[in-house]
Amino acid sequence: MASDAVIRAAIGDVDGANRDYTTPETYEAGTLRVIHNGLVRLEGFIETSVTSFRMDVAPRTGDALLAYYGRP
What we know:
Distance between the termini: 12 Å
Largest sheet: 4 strands, antiparallel
Low-confidence stretches: none
Strand order of the largest sheet: 1-7-3-4
Radius of gyration: 11 Å
Structural class: mainly beta
Oligomer: single chain
């Protein structure tokens, strides 16, 4: 990951139903990693644009969801 990598809170409802999330800024395609309850996930999601992603399974209410990515 580039030295300009950042960790930001994913934007979207964490309610057991929502699977779509955005990031507060554009990231470099292919650099996204999702941190779900403290565990870095390399799979279990797809990038839907350079500002959003979809989880394969909706995080449960109360789960922590962060996005780790490189800035372009």
